[in-house]
Design the sequence.
């Protein structure tokens, strides 16, 4: 049965544009950050020709975020403790966002000059924190209550329909503290990190889009958190329970039999490595060390082996709290949400993997979460 809509009339997101003297073209390049406040909104940044950003508006999700630590009413710099709270779908034509406070997912059509909200549906669980898309499928990771994943189909207009028999509880239950869900590049599997249980869970996705066989793999390091893919290999950051200087990253081969470690826990000597992105060519991976205020870089070889390129590819300051990261679709620019500064830092990714800082643009609320770029 199709879920009851949270709206009964067409919804157009209200977008307030600046008076900057340039033509806004979000389809050419843009960055989006979720405010994650009680009235949740998407902050919209247009990407200019030199990679810098200009804030051009915001759009209401229609749902509620949750800027508090679980079980408290204390506003947190990292309330969702997840990667992938925002994501694109259907060849980048739509943007999807979690509403952790109202247990919903919002869908937006991306126009040239703004976002139009096309749907808002229940997430199928409690406290959605991460989502992923592949073709006409979307899966969401619900981190509250009994943590679980739930599947949806995406219509050509961006609307979501819950997929029957496509909810699976995570193996570690309420101790799992999950961080991210994502399809593998070939769409054949879903991967979920359980940072609380030090496990990585893979689900085989059937031809009908539903999860099948589940394989549980112990993480190479403590606290598997964010991840990405390099030439089909899985690259995972390890927060090491926030122990000072113990951050690390591992790589794995992915097969029908599960995961096999390629490079195990290569340290970057930072603290609380959580968010990770990989360049489009798979050559470099970047990790945000939230506790020590650094972004570290790794070189990824063709066979998936890792080596630390630069422990301090960027020192954003020990109070900056770098969390969510995104990159442009052409991998020329990296965008890092600095939760401590309530800002987005813009970096140019050089051919040798080095980062050159271009800009810092502020104005985000405390508790903001999730970033997506193209």
Sequence:
């Amino acid at each position: 049965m199709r879920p009851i809509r949270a709206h009964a009339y067409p919804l157009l997101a209200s977008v307030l544009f600046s008076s900057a003297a340039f033509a806004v073209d979000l389809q050419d390049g843009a960055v989006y950050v979720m405010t994650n406040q009680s009235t949740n909104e998407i902050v919209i940044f247009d990407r200019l020709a030199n990679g810098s950003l200009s804030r051009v508006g915001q759009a209401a999700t229609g749902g509620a975020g949750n800027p508090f630590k679980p079980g408290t009413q204390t506003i947190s710099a990292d309330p969702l403790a997840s990667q992938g709270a925002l994501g694109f779908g259907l060849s980048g034509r739509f943007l999807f966002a979690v509403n952790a406070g109202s247990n919903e997912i919002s869908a937006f059509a991306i126009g040239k000059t703004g976002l139009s909200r096309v749907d808002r549906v229940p997430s199928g669980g409690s406290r959605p924190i991460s989502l992923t898309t592949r073709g006409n499928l979307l899966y969401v990771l619900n981190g509250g209550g009994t943590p679980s994943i739930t599947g949806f189909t995406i219509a050509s207009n961006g609307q979501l329909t819950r997929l029957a028999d496509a909810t699976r509880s995570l193996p570690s239950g309420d101790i799992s503290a999950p961080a991210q869900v994502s399809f593998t590049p070939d769409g054949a599997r879903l991967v979920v990190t359980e940072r609380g249980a030090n496990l990585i869970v893979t689900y085989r996705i059937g031809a009908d889009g539903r999860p099948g066989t589940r394989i549980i793999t112990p993480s190479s390091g403590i606290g598997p958190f964010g991840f990405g893919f390099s030439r089909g290999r899985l690259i995972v950051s390890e927060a090491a329970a926030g122990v000072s200087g113990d951050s690390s990253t591992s790589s794995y081969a992915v097969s029908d039999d599960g995961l096999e470690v390629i490079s195990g826990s290569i340290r970057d000597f930072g603290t609380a490595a959580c968010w990770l992105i990989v360049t489009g060519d798979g050559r470099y991976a970047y990790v945000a060390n939230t506790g020590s205020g650094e972004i570290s870089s790794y070189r990824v070889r063709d066979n998936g082996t890792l080596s630390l390129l630069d422990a301090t590819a960027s020192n954003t300051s020990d109070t900056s709290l770098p969390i969510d990261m995104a990159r442009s679709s052409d991998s020329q620019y990296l965008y890092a949400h600095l939760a401590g500064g309530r800002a987005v830092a813009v970096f140019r990714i050089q051919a040798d993997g080095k980062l050159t800082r271009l800009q810092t643009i502020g104005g985000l609320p405390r508790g903001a979460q999730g970033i997506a770029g193209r």
